[in-house]
Amino acid sequence: MGNTMTFTWSQQRILVLSPHPDDEILGCGGLLHKAKAAGAEVFIQFLTVGHTTDRSSCLSSSPEERHIEIKQVAEYQQWDGWHIAFPGDEYHLRLDLIPRVELSNMVEQESPLSIAKLRPTVVIAPHRTSYNQDHQAVAEAAHTAMRPSNARLRHHPELVLSYEEAADQWRYDAAPMPNLLVELAEEDLDSKLGALQLYATQIHEHPHTRSEQTLRSLAVLRGMQGGFALAEAYHIMRCAA
């Protein structure tokens, strides 16, 4: 992370693989605002959404409530499109039950926002070290879907990243140090925190990995590591120049 590079976000078509509604904001909400403000196209592929019971202030949430939240966040951040691959409870928090070939085929070619149909220049997926089984399944499916091959026959996104969430360190084999820091302006972080507020069924009071204070603290830490005020951190899977 010792070198600084310039990346032109205005020319990018970005596809984010989000296991559940809110992961895209927790992992890369600041980057999405930064890129969209520069003129990029932003698309979100959600993998699943279903009934959720947790210890948030709302205690539980329905798919209908989550759909409303998605629409609010999509409008707030001005996404160009979004899609849910496996709606309903059958695979919600059970994506690990889907054979990897089926999950990777959805990401690679079957979804309306698949890599083959959308032809994104940037793909951002969860990191495989997440403790959450859905995140692990999506990370591995993304790895398979973007395997090296003849670029004349299969679309190869030029930049493939994995995003981090504050909870990803809760493992014996925690994620290694990220090797890409994306500088954020205050308005980028404000958009990230504002979007999290719109996921009202998912946000928590501090201390929690989905609290505003945690997201701000992580942005400050990653910024300091790059010599910035604020940043988001990523792991590079592919960077073709």
- Give the number of DSSP strands: 9
Q: Report the portion of residues in β strands.
A: 15-25%
Give helix and strand order, one letter per element, not per position. EHEEEHEHHEHEEHHE
Q: What's the end-to-end separation, in Å?
A: 17 Å
Shape type = globular
Keywords: Zinc
InterPro entries: GlcNAc_PI_deacetylase-related (IPR003737), LmbE-like_dom_sf (IPR024078)
Protein name: PIG-L domain-containing protein
GO biological process, one term: glycoside metabolic process
Key terms for this structure?
241 residues; alpha/beta; seven-stranded mixed beta sheet; 7 helices; 9 strands; 36% helix; globular
Explain the layout of strands and helices.
Elements: E1 13-18, H1 23-38, E2 41-49, E3 52-53, E4 60-61, H2 63-77, E5 81-87, H3 100-110, H4 115-118, E6 122-126, H5 133-145, E7 159-163, E8 180-183, H6 186-198, H7 212-226, E9 231-239
Parallel strand pairs: 1-2, 1-6, 2-5, 6-7
Antiparallel strand pairs: 3-4, 7-9, 8-9
Helix pairs in contact: 1-6, 2-6, 3-5, 6-7
Organism: Rhizocola hellebori
GO biological process, one term: glycoside metabolic process
Protein name: PIG-L domain-containing protein
Can you tell me about this structure?
It is built from seven helices and nine strands; from the N terminus they run βαβββαβααβαββααβ. The radius of gyration is 17 Å and the shape is globular. By secondary structure, the chain is α/β, with parallel strands linked by helices. The strands form two sheets. Strands 5-2-1-6-7-9-8 form a seven-stranded mixed beta sheet, with helices on both faces. Strands 3-4 form a two-stranded antiparallel sheet. The mean pLDDT is 93. It has one domain: Rossmann fold, CATH 3.40.50.10320. Pfam families: PIG-L.
